[in-house]
Design goal:
This protein is an all-alpha fold. The chain has a domain at 34-81. The protein has 3 helices and no strands.
Length: 81
């Protein structure tokens, strides 16, 4: 996993909040709203998921909250929605 080396690279929810408040953040906020591919999650998390990912729109479990946060951190996302 790549470790952020500067404040510019570090995830920061305030980037998203500034953008939503029509203020200028230091860079464009990075968020992922809808990843549904088990293969993508497994690639980023570098491990097999021990559960089936269902379509959240149909009431299925998309991913555990813990795995979602780890996925976001590895991607350098500024927020988990």
């Amino acid at each position: 996993m790549k470790v952020p080396t500067t404040d510019y690279e570090k995830p920061d929810v305030n980037r998203l909040l500034k953008a939503l408040n029509h203020e200028e953040p230091d860079r464009v906020p990075h968020i992922e709203l809808w990843v549904t591919s088990k293969a993508v999650y497994e690639h980023v998390l570098e491990r097999k998921l021990e559960y089936t990912i269902g379509d959240a729109a149909e009431g299925g479990q998309s991913i555990t909250p813990e795995d979602d946060v780890e996925f976001a951190m590895r991607q350098g996302e500024d927020a988990v929605l």
